[in-house]
Amino acid sequence: MNKINKLITAIKLILKKPHLLNLIVENQDLYKEKIIKKYNLKCGFPQIKIEAIFPEFNESVSPYAFLDGSSLPIDLALLRALAKKYKVEDYLEIGTWRGESAANVAPHVRNCVSLNLSDEELIKMGQTQAYIDSHRFFSKKISNVKHIAAHSHSFEFESLGTRFDMVFVDGDHHYESVKKDTQTAFNIIKKDDSIIVWHDYAASPETVRYDVMLGILDGSPPEKRKRIFHISNTLCAVYLTEDFSSSFLTPYAKPDKYFEMEIKIKSV
Length: 268
Fold this sequence. Notes:
The protein is α/β, with parallel strands linked by helices. It has a single domain (about 50-240), classed as 3-Layer(aba) Sandwich (Rossmann fold), CATH 3.40.50.150. About 35% of the residues lie in helices and about 15% in strands. It is built from 10 helices and 10 strands. It has helices at about 5-15, 20-25, 30-40, 50-55, 75-85, 100-105, 120-125, 130-135, 175-190, 210-220, and strands spanning about 45-50, 90-95, 110-115, 145-150, 165-170, 195-200, 200-205, 205-210, 230, 235-240. The strands form 2 sheets. The chain has an 8-stranded mixed β-sheet, sandwiched between helices. Strands 7-8 form a two-stranded antiparallel sheet. The longest helix is centred in the N-terminal third of the chain and has 14 residues, at about 5-15.
């Protein structure tokens, strides 16, 4: 099929199914080009090796379901380790899902707030009852976890009467939502040395999601952007003010470490 025939076929498909335009508009290469042009970042955020932050990294993760939509185990271990190292008292997350992140962080903080769309909004979006019932599964009975049913773009966070030492942004991962949630995160942290963690900055530990990255950059105050890093071996970007050596990711480089895992099954 030559280029003209491909173009004609593409136009017919788009006219029949307009949502296919999203595949073009949200193409990762387009977002990457925007980032290079606007921020001159060709290889994602600078990367900090996880062992540079935690020289004796030794974390367990529980609960963890090994089901669709979950964070990687190393992502949850990172949240736990950050909460302990930086003595986080007040933690907020945007996006609850099964409650694994809140359940892993809650034992190490004083106050945990988890915000997610209400069941009613999820129903309007056409989600199944099984999907809705899975929300908050692991965190709903934890005493220091407060669940809020609201949209992060319209919720008045000032009503909580609290600012946070650590914010975990793990809601809608489209550009506009990431931008808005990033702006919110910087507005509700306690002080400059508080922590923000963005999940799914990377599609894999070696593959940047440039739509998410641009949302983070455009939503961050200009003076804060140089303090945002990718943490090696994770899907997470982190705003940290402490100084660590960093370098840019080289995909498929030889491993310089490995991790040990012990996996046990526990009934719920």
